[in-house]
TrEMBL record:
<keyword id="KW-0813">Transport</keyword>
<dbReference type="Pfam" id="PF00005">
    <property type="entry name" value="ABC_tran"/>
</dbReference>
<keyword id="KW-0067">ATP-binding</keyword>
<dbReference type="InterPro" id="IPR003439">
    <property type="entry name" value="ABC_transporter-like_ATP-bd"/>
</dbReference>
<dbReference type="InterPro" id="IPR017871">
    <property type="entry name" value="ABC_transporter-like_CS"/>
</dbReference>
<dbReference type="GO" id="GO:0005524">
    <property type="term" value="F:ATP binding"/>
</dbReference>
<feature type="domain" description="ABC transporter">
    <location>
        <begin position="2"/>
        <end position="234"/>
    </location>
</feature>
<comment type="similarity">
    <text>Belongs to the ABC transporter superfamily.</text>
</comment>
<dbReference type="InterPro" id="IPR050153">
    <property type="entry name" value="Metal_Ion_Import_ABC"/>
</dbReference>
<keyword id="KW-0547">Nucleotide-binding</keyword>
<protein>
    <submittedName>
        <fullName>Metal ABC transporter ATP-binding protein</fullName>
    </submittedName>
</protein>
<dbReference type="InterPro" id="IPR027417">
    <property type="entry name" value="P-loop_NTPase"/>
</dbReference>
<dbReference type="InterPro" id="IPR003593">
    <property type="entry name" value="AAA+_ATPase"/>
</dbReference>
Length: 243
């Protein structure tokens, strides 16, 4: 179980980005975080995970996040990552092993087998020795998901993982994430394509600087909540809201 209590953050100490967001997820699920541009979706995650300065608390099974941080994986937006960094695909995936390593502890042969298995799952094993800068956007996103797999985190946070990737990569990632859920994990995804909300998410968090609604997707993905978050001009292309 992970609980967020009054998560707040501002851009510069003055302009509020997200205010007093509180909710709890107490079972394995894929949770979508949606809202308009500037709604504070990414800021909420970063503040909740203590990646930026903010207020409020995040607890895991009643313990502070600091005590359970090895159980948390975070994948930032691809646009925030330096593709030119000289690292291979295999080395990038292996970074997911370090949170559970002791200082200066080396990666073992068994660890590299885990890396190979993760690359097989995302159908990227043949790319193991390539530089990450040679990958397409979809291929690179698969590598980031493989990195969370080897980390074996219970709580996974993905910030806009489907932006700028191909349909094949998106399908592979969603299949893998559904497998993670069956293993008992809770996966949070900042997402913008409302047409896929009902297919992708068990639970939904709707934000616009403050919490608009949170709960099972079939209960909170409604016109009323969407209008409150996005305004009266909201149009769900290809999707169906529940009222």
């Amino acid at each position: 179980m992970i609980a967020f209590d009054n998560i707040s953050a501002s851009y510069d100490g003055v302009h509020q980005a997200v205010a007093d967001v509180s909710f709890t997820i107490d079972k394995p699920a894929i949770i979508g975080i949606i809202g308009p541009n500037g709604a504070g979706k990414s800021t909420f995650i970063k503040s909740a995970l203590n990646l930026i300065e903010g207020s409020g608390t995040t607890t895991v099974d009643g313990q502070s996040l600091q005590k359970r941080k090895k159980e948390v994986a975070y994948v930032e937006q691809k646009s925030d990552i330096d593709y030119t960094f000289p690292i291979t695909v295999g080395e990038c995936v292996s970074l997911g092993l370090y949170p559970k390593k002791r200082f200066f502890q080396r990666i073992t042969k068994e660890d590299w087998h885990k890396v190979d298995h993760a690359l097989e799952l995302v159908q990227m094993k043949d790319f193991k020795d390539r530089q990450i800068g040679e990958l397409s956007g979809g291929q690179f996103q698969r590598i980031l998901i493989a990195r969370t797999f080897v980390q074996d985190a219970t709580f996974i946070f993905l910030d806009e993982p489907f932006v700028g990737i191909d349909a094949t990569s998106e399908q592979i990632i969603m299949e893998l994430l559904n497998g993670f859920k069956k293993e008992g994990k809770e996966i949070f995804i900042v997402h913008h394509d409302l047409s896929k909300v009902e297919r992708y998410f068990d639970e939904l968090v709707i934000l616009n600087k403050e919490l608009i609604a949170q709960g099972p997707t079939d209960e909170v993905f409604t016109k009323t909540n969407l209008k409150q978050a996005f305004g009266d001009t909201i149009f769900v292309g290809g999707g169906q809201s529940n009222d």
